[in-house]
Amino acid sequence: MTTSETVVSTEIESRDDQVITLRECGCTYVAIATQLELGRATMARKAYLRGLKRRSPEEQRILRGHELARFDALATSVAARDNLDEDEISRRLATVDVLRQELLNG
Question: What is the pTM of this model?
Answer without folding.
Answer: 0.88
